[in-house]
Write a structure and sequence with these properties.
This protein has one domain: Cytochrome p450 (Orthogonal Bundle). The relative contact order is 0.16. It has a 5-stranded mixed β-sheet with strand order 1-2-8-5-3. It is α+β, with helices and mostly antiparallel strands and 460 residues long. Strand 1 and strand 2 form a beta hairpin. 50% of the residues lie in helices and 11% in strands. It starts with 17 loop residues before the first helix and ends in an 8-residue tail after the last strand.
């Protein structure tokens, strides 16, 4: 360094045009960011059109970005523009509203509530198995991703409203798929109000949102007018008060925004995580065999899983953990500093885009032995101590996913319910391509063939 005020320059590509970088990023974000990390290291400078951007891969830098500087950053363009659907829900809002809303919603995820959600997860999974028998699912290839999406959507709808509400689930599925289609536009700097553009996808989005709002607001009005508030998540949101703040409750708009946020975050990420888990098990017979052995040891010959089994399935939990290492449902977290921030020896300017990419850090060989291999045992018998933020599938800091425990329980219990009866094989013509939109989906779904597991796998 050549002076008191000089700072080290953050490495990054010097010859690429900003337009070329945005094209490479939009075309294949995972390949683009992995290449930057491989060539330039833990903190990389690049540009997306006129906006300076930084890839943050070092676990200590990730910690500082998400925790130390959390109060001095805002959310990404894509999530801010997702307010067109989600409004000011937990996923998109900023403090102080975010702090108040999280405080109001926290009781819905206390341990005793999770017990009732766990029973719901198991019961819904068992219903799905019976439906598979009626539909002859074992007789032909089918889209496992679609099945997992419908299953987790059914669970979250029941948790929210104590009933199936098929029309609501259908509309939520449509609007979720549409907003994922819009993702390439949502991430572009200096592109605003995408939902109002004269594009076919934008028109589909507006119509789906209108239908969804009609159903949601109707349910809120009915519940407020009812003499029996119920014991589901909607009832908790309507009754929640803020004793640490103004003592107030949520208005209809705030309840609507949080319901839609719980819809999206409560089914999309878990469905993707389960899909990638079944795929990885199908490709790793030793891990699959150990997974099935644990289920047989804990559940015996066909005993239906119970909520208490969640703590008794360490290898199944490790399978789920390892799947989210290789295919993190939230593949990157974006933050925009409101003021200059310090990451290690480097200063990051205000209004730049910082990307903490789980896909990159989770596959770093310095923290994970044989990082491209699916090795659940690394979580049962931990490898050498690694930095805390070498693995962060649910984020960190004040914005860590409020439903993290819900997701862990749902993933492990559903793996037990389905793994006890079935194993899955990749269909010969299946194309497996990760699609990094707001979440990490399989681009073409996941075409699988279900096989019953002997006598213990026969559906009742």
């Amino acid at each position: 360094m050549s002076g008191a005020n000089s700072r080290p320059r953050i490495p990054g590509p010097a010859s690429w045009s900003p337009l070329g970088q945005i094209r490479a990023f939009r075309s294949n974000p995972l390949h683009f960011l992995t290449g930057l990390h491989r060539e330039y290291g833990d903190l990389v400078r690049f540009r997306l059109i006129r906006q300076p951007a930084y890839l943050v891969s070092n676990p200590d830098h990730v910690r500082d970005l998400l925790i130390q500087h959390g109060a001095n950053t805002t959310k990404s363009l894509a999530l801010r523009r997702s307010k067109a659907l989600l409004g000011e829900g937990l996923l998109t809002s900023e403090p102080p509203l975010h702090t108040r809303q999280r405080r109001l919603m926290q009781p819905a995820f206390h341990r005793e509530r999770l017990q009732s959600y766990g029973k719901l997860m198991i019961a819904t999974g068992q219903e799905w198995l019976r439906g598979w028998r009626e539909r002859g699912i074992a007789e032909r290839p089918f889209d496992l991703h679609s099945e997992m999406m419908q299953l987790t959507l059914s669970i979250v709808v029941r948790a929210l409203f104590s009933s199936d509400l098929a029309p609501l689930a259908e509309e939520m599925s449509r609007v979720t798929n549409t907003i994922m289609e819009m993702f390439p536009w949502l991430i572009l700097p200096y592109v605003e109000n995408v939902e109002n553009w004269p594009l076919p996808v934008s028109r589909r989005f507006r119509k789906a949102r209108e239908r969804l709002d009609g159903v949601i607001y109707g349910l809120i009005r009915e519940r407020r007018a009812s003499s029996e508030p119920g014991a589901d998540l909607l009832a908790m949101l309507l009754a929640a008060q803020d004793p640490e703040g103004d003592g107030g409750q949520m208005n209809d708009k705030q309840v609507r925004d949080e319901l839609l946020t719980l819809f999206l975050a409560g089914h999309e990420t878990t469905a993707n995580a389960l899909t990638w888990t079944w795929y990885l098990l199908s490709q790793n017979p030793e891990a699959e065999a150990r997974f099935h052995r644990e289920l047989a040891e804990v559940l015996g010959e066909g005993r239906t899983p119970e909520v208490g089994d969640f703590e008794a399935l360490p290898y199944t939990t490790a399978v789920f953990m390892e799947s989210m290492r290789l295919y993190p449902p939230a593949w990157a977290i974006a933050r925009i500093p409101k003021v200059p921030i310090q990451l290690g020896e480097y200063e990051i300017p205000a209004k730049s885009l910082c990307l903490a990419c789980q896909w990159v850090t989770h596959r770093d060989g310095r923290y994970f032995r044989e990082p491209e291999r699916f090795l659940p045992e690394r979580w049962v018998q931990p490898e050498d101590k690694r930095p805390r933020f070498a693995y962060y599938p649910f984020g960190a800091g004040s914005r860590i996913c409020i439903g993290e425990r819900f997701a862990w329980m749902e993933g492990v219990l559903l793996l037990a319910v389905f793994g006890q009866k079935w194993r899955f094989r990749l269909a010969p013509d299946a194309e497996v391509v990760p699609q990094p939109v707001i979440t990490l989906r399989p681009r073409y779904g996941l075409k699988m063939i279900a096989e019953r597991r002997g006598l213990s796998g026969m559906l009742e």
